[in-house]
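[worker-b] picked up task from shared queue
[worker-b] task type: protein-ligand structure
[worker-b] ligand name resolved to flavin-adenine dinucleotide; SMILES cross-checked against name lookup, match
[worker-b] sequence length check passed
[worker-b] input payload:
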Amino acid sequence: MPDKNAPTLILGGGFTGLFTALHLSRMHYTRPVYLLDKEENFAFKPLLYELLSGEMDSHQVVPRYEELLEGNAIRFVHGMVSAVDLPGRRVQLASGLSYAYWNLVLALGSCAGYFGVEGAREHSFAFRTGDDVLSLKRHLRESLQRAGQTEDSTERRRLLTVAVVGAGPSGLELASTLADWLPGRYRQLGGDGSEIRIVLLHRGSEILQGDMNYNLRWTVHQSLPRHVVPIELEVETQVTAVRPDGLTLNMRGTSEDLPAATCIWTAGTQAHPLLKTLVPEEQRDKRGQLRVTPTLQLPTFPEVFAGGDCAIDAEKPLPAIAQVAYQQGYAIAHNLKALSEGHPPVAAEVHLRGTLMKLGVGEAAAELYDRYEIKGHLGHLLRQVRYLELLPTPIHNFKATTEWLTDAIFHRMEKAQSGHPDHDV
Ligand SMILES: Cc1cc2nc3c(=O)[nH]c(=O)nc-3n(C[C@H](O)[C@H](O)[C@H](O)COP(=O)(O)OP(=O)(O)OC[C@H]3O[C@@H](n4cnc5c(N)ncnc54)[C@H](O)[C@@H]3O)c2cc1C
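[worker-b] inference finished, payload out:
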């Protein structure tokens, strides 16, 4: 058992972990806090599309933790967590370092899931981190350059075809960004932008099925043919194999080949692999997330909190999205502070405030409180401001200049709708 002065460790500096740390710092929490992440930069996942298209730069979308935590008492540790010994209260890093803790926050997020599709992991691009965006961008540039030099029209068509797998929110936002941005890139290299093909492959019969953005499906659907190049949507189409030169598809019972130099996989998520080493199966749900109490503690290890994509309160399940993760970060910080002062933890409150989807370069749609839909450039501004104002650095702090926007749209509506206190930003 570590001594009572051991730090609070936060594993994973994503939306849950980073916001737990920032809130603890603001609350003047007295125990030392270490934030551990395998990356040196925070990934603002909802804005990775803007990093790809160059609408925003890396300072805004993937800022360094050291910059984000400047002036805070939080210590950042860069390292890959390889094992956690819950009974022994110790965390092991792949580097060989290990850390004892008094309280622990598990905020490791989730991973891409490939449903065992042959070649999918090896030959498709993931789209979850800043590094994923950079390698995709490099590969696209090379494909366009090679396409510009080839005389073989079949090969050129393959080099200019991008397959996006999954018409959930990420697949749709990514396909929309590519369909607006990639033709211009090809034109800059001397090519004909209209030759770019963006093919969106979806297993289900309807886009956004079962997703929180489902109410936006008509708006999104109508936008698909209106990009710089139209998005070719194929529903009821299962990807059965991915190869370096293309994909094999099962299209409504018929096997088809899709020659494509680029395949991007957005179709599935799975639980972080460390979670199954922590607690027995019955303490995880069917997707492998950790079952937590309403106070976001592990039932058998109350000194351990978990939130975001890696945890679920079975009584009150919430979608795996950023707005849930950062509100849970606030709740975990509040409860850690309460425990440190001898008070009992309280149930986490999370308010879902609507959804925001990118519909291409400079376009977005927002659906607020199941009632209001805001589209086009105003939707785009609202989406960017809403995310950027969350972070504490001057480059992210748009609050002063954009107060009119958030005040006019979000806060007044929220008050009118529910009267809930605004504590998540
Ligand atoms: C492309 C994309 C777009 C999205 N867009 C939206 C959106 O528009 N709106 C929305 O609400 N949600 C969106 N989401 C979902 C949202 O980003 C997640 O729900 C949210 O990030 C979950 O927060 P988290 O803290 O649980 O995990 P994450 O934010 O994923 O953070 C987990 C952290 O743990 C670190 N980590 C993982 N394993 C280890 C290890 N072994 N050792 C050390 N560190 C480790 C990771 O590096 C990461 O920093 C999007 C997701 C993606 C992938």
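[worker-b] attaching auto-annotations
[worker-b] The longest strand covers residues 237-243.
[worker-b] releasing lock
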